[in-house]
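ESCALATION

Customer reports they have been waiting on this structure for their group meeting. Please prioritize. Original submission:
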Amino acid sequence: MRLVIFVEPQQGASYDDQRRVAQLAEETGFDGFFRSDHFVAMGGDGLPGPTDSWVTLGALAVQTSRIRLGTLVTSATFRYPGPLAISVAQVDEMSNGRVELGLGGGWFEREHAAYGIPFPPLGERFNRLEEQLEIVTGLWAATEPYTFTGKHYQLIDSPALPKPVQSPRPPVVIGGKGPKRTPALAARYADEFNAPFVTLAEAGELFDRVRAASAEVGRETPPAMSVALALCCGRDDAEVRRRAAAIGRDVDELRENGAAVGTPDEVVDLISRYAEAGVSRVYLQTLDLTDLHHIELVATAVAPQLA
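Update from on-call: job pushed to the front of the queue and completed.
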């Protein structure tokens, strides 16, 4: 099982906070460091303020050496697909081929209003996401000038440069709970499908939809399956409750919503059940970036049992 530390910097984290966590995750053996792509906190003041996801990952690319780096997920509403393909390819080169692109349609209307970003209706956001996926992957794969004519984006004789380091391209992660379009997009474009913050039973239903959609388009091997789980692990019940309180959550509520909560053995048991359901990577949402002992505990008491 591959374990990823997944952070939400819009809730209140500087670049240095993220760097410390990413470097510790690398030192302690985690597979990856991924971050969200948001500009407004969802509760709290969010101080010192948001950080841009790809600026952050570009810096981390040269301040780490092994760990995988990516977004869960970049919002298609924030960027044009051509410049996004350039940014990801550049960070891939800076990291010597360690980048992954999580891409979604965008959903948090408040942050769009706060920073003057258009927020189209849901159907249009999915249409834009579909065009972006085709354009980004098309630019990376093109061996001659690239042209695309869509409803929302048009590219004419793009040089389709730079190329990523990874071949054939950086992995693409698509996640979500949508019943139709999300599985269809994952079947066409994703190397990995992510079920975010759902119970084990709900994740299984999402995985089945992606596998069925893959079969419909003739894809013999469906995307790899992953989940994102809120993390709240402690050596004993008191430490678990202290960590839950620090992130403004309740232990019972976390358990009801499928979080990785409890002692190391309890977390191992939950993740093992996801493994039985076909999950190969778990993103552990780590909200308190000052609690480095939390990461160390998972690295020493959880990860070895899942190796």
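Sent to customer with the following note: The chain has one domain: 2-306.
Escalation resolved.
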